[in-house]
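Suppose you are handed a protein chain with no further information: no name, no annotation, nothing but its sequence. What can you learn? This example shows the usual starting point.
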Amino acid sequence: MSEQQHEQRPWTPACAAVAERLTAGAPVVVGGRSWRVAGRVLATDHEETWLECLLRDGPDTAWLAVETLTGDPRLSLWHRTTAATAGFDPATAVLRGTALTETGRGEARFTTEGDLTPAGVGLPAAGTLVYREYEGPEGRVAAARFGPDGPWLVGTGTPLGGAEALTDAEAGPAPVGGDPSDGAWWAEFFGDIYTDSDIEQQDPGLTRDMVACVTRLVPPAGRPRLLDLACGTGRHAVPLAGAGYRVTGADLSADYLGQARRRAEAAGRDVTFVRADMRDLSAFPDGCFDAVTNLHTSFGFFHDAAEDQRVLQEVRRVLAPGGRFLIDVVNRDAFLRQTSEVFGVPEDQYVIRNFDDSTGRTFLHEEVFDPLTSRIRWTVTEPTTGRSSTADYRVFSAHELLAMLRAAGLRVETVHGDYDGSPFTVHAPSIVCLASAPS
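A reasonable first move is to predict its three-dimensional structure. Written in structure tokens, the prediction is:
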């Protein structure tokens, strides 16, 4: 039955635009995860017309609700099951032994489209449903019964916001509150000169070692949902998708995300890329990932230590119980074992200078270490063009990083000194740490 035949209440253009994107069979990205619309329910009561879509990602399902009462679409993601499975008694409004507070009830006419059998119950093509809404310890709870003989479906919902919660562009929406990269060093540094000059970025063997490290410490059995945080151009995200993970890559650089999407398309890999600030992962609901990776010293960017701690807290929030976090940063103690420059450098400074011409182009590198802040100011210069760019990031000793992980509520499991799993020592080039969320 068409929406016009359903005699729905008029939708605003914004609501209609969302409904057009959520037709049966359409791919959609919700909360940073790729789904396909299996089917949908269109319902109308005395106040509004709303849409509910059954989403599928392999064996996983979820319901996306699009409410229209305010005139602007408001989206929420629901996990629903039968009342018996959920432990819900509709007669007493008790959910798993806890009484709920009823906030609303009513009836609505509905029609269905697509394949709704993955929901675990058979829904009629059309009819009348009754619904009840509650508040409980888990937040908003809703129950619905499709037809007089149908089972009660009950679930809890997570608000997603407006239409911006659906992302299918290669870069996704700008981060909430504007672009926090404005005026920050990373807004300029991660451009052509960095990707051209960073030999490690261009080393396929090193990339394979890093991916192998992930697969060894976070095995891909069961196709875990993995967030590659600060994914850049998809250097790790794309091969990790090939290794069997369901990968989402998050980065603040729209340009990098565009390159990552093209890399995934060229490799024939299904990867979702979302634009997000690592301090604010509100695009992703709580507990939505089985694993998070943060590789190649993509941590310690912020001058306020509390901002770095926020990153780890956000990682902890998006990890499912027992989920694992793999982080890799340069080992400050090993960095300081290098012999610093003595010519043209003040006695109170620690400076490492070198150059590289292995690609046929010459790049000069200067790293100035500040012992009072434990930050490295790294400047890359191409003398033939005069191009130059500078990064300013903090490095850590192992005990500092481990203390931050524990403060974020993560449990440290293993610490290695390199991607081959070798033990961590003061001489190790990297701190490769595996932590986990409480079960």
